[in-house]
């Protein structure tokens, strides 16, 4: 029974330092007891993830992180009050209670309260936080359904807790509080505008979560099998190709002349949230087509458009 909604069984496994894939509103996570080094080590092994890339720890309430001795900066608390449970992660100074394998020796830890009823219930019944990266092999697209997890990691983990399709569909927005001013380290499921609005200031954006990763890792991220090209106007760019041999990811309109089964329109109503929630499944599906190239439309750089463009850009970078 690798997939199901048996919370007591998931608890039993996690208490025995086993791995369980868990649903969140962003993407599925590959979870283990964050306070147990061996449990965390098996996350890295299962994902084939380099150990210098630290993990986010998850719990069900901000107070629990404080009970574990972490001190949460005022601005982070303010954001947590507005957006937790939700798709935003804070990087704050770590303490000795967090094993170095979780922080990758950075002295900082990433914390998040995810917004999914099953996982919130699970977390409330555990005496430890869950370390959980996205539940995909390192370098691949994050899973937004239990089935995605099963396809890539099914034979390597004991249980997949099925919470349906992830509503947000892209990973959490990461904000670092290690310096005087908060900085955005990853575009994600919470719009930057919403964060700036609460803090009442513009934030610096340093996509430095990529810098932690060794050179070359970024180029592998989200790598599809087919070449993927981001274009301003698909209808124009497509003139250069055989329309029957192109896969398309577009925002709200389908492209005349391209076979309908080769097209993935992310939101017919032009809704960036809906587009984000459909993005990863579309990226998986388009890559299964027998085509020569994938053309993806550049999204507007507002709200979740930043995260969509970021993930498409990673997918467009080909390995050497
Ligand atoms: O939505 C999400 O954030 C999902 C769900 C499962 O919560 N998790 C997720 O984890 O996307 P992962 O490991 O795939 O991405 C976490 C990112 C990585 O880029 C990592 O480098 C960064 O967070 N990160 C984690 N701890 C950090 C730290 N102490 N300092 C800087 N970056 C950190
Ligand atoms: Mg990931």
* C-alpha-based Rg, rounded: 19 Å
CATH hierarchy class name of the largest domain? Alpha Beta
Question: Could you say which small molecules are bound to this protein?
Answer: threonylcarbamoyladenylate, magnesium ion
Report the sheet-strand fraction. 15-25%
Q: Largest beta sheet, briefly?
A: 11 strands, mixed
Unreliable segments (pLDDT under 50, ≥5 consecutive)?
209-217
Shape: globular
Mean pLDDT: 94
Distance between the termini: 40 Å
What percent of the residues sit in helical stretches (DSSP H or I)? 25-40%
Structural class call reads alpha/beta
Total helix count?
A: 13
Describe it for me?
The protein is of the alpha/beta class and 320 residues long. The protein has two domains: 3-205, DHBP synthase (Alpha-Beta Complex); 228-316, 3-Layer(aba) Sandwich (Rossmann fold), CATH 3.40.50. Helix content is 32%, strand content 18%. The chain contains 13 helices and 15 strands. The chain has helices spanning 7-15, 37-47, 62-67, 74-83, 100-103, 117-124, 146-153, 192-199, 209-212, 217-220, 234-237, 272-287, 305-316, and strands at 3-4, 20-22, 29-33, 56-58, 88-93, 108-112, 130-131, 159-161, 173-176, 183-186, 204-205, 228-231, 246-250, 263-265, 293-297. The strands form two sheets. It has an eleven-stranded mixed beta sheet with strand order 1-8-2-3-7-4-6-5-9-10-11, sandwiched between helices. The longest helix has 16 residues, at 272-287. The termini are far apart. Bound molecules: threonylcarbamoyladenylate and magnesium ion (MG).
